[in-house]
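Long-time lurker. I teach an intro course on protein structure, and each term I like to show students one example going from raw sequence to a predicted 3D structure in token notation. This year I'd like something fresh instead of my usual example. Would anyone be willing to generate the tokens for the chain below so I can use it in lecture? Attribution to the forum is fine with me.
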Amino acid sequence: MKDLSSRDLFEKLSQKYPSTEFLFFTWSGGGDEFQGYELKRSKNDGIEFENHTKELVEELADILWNSTIFDDLALKINCVDQGWSEGVLLIALKTLTDNFYHEENCTLQEKVGFKGISVAGKNHESLNESRKF
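-- Reply from a regular --
Happy to contribute to a lecture. Here you go:
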């Protein structure tokens, strides 16, 4: 059962990782099933990382799996049959010190000072939503 609202998730991650500025993930789904999240980048104590320990990746994936981010932001990502969904998720645990920009499968950008959760993606149509905390 998913029991972490986006606010609860944000607070839990902020407490668990107090020196982390942001966590950046990809997410995907296909058929009738959501496939989960993959940690791609993070910024900790002013240093950006692209390589993370297996333990951290798995721990964060488990925490996110139990969250209701997409429901809270009213994003419809379910797929039917051969459908697909994919996108990115930025969780800025502290106010961003630099503009954040990602453009690969979809575009996500947040300006200096943003603190919260931002989601972008595709699911037969573009999805973009953010929530400031």
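Some talking points for your students: The chain has a mean pLDDT of 84. The helical segments are 6-16, 54-65, 69-72.
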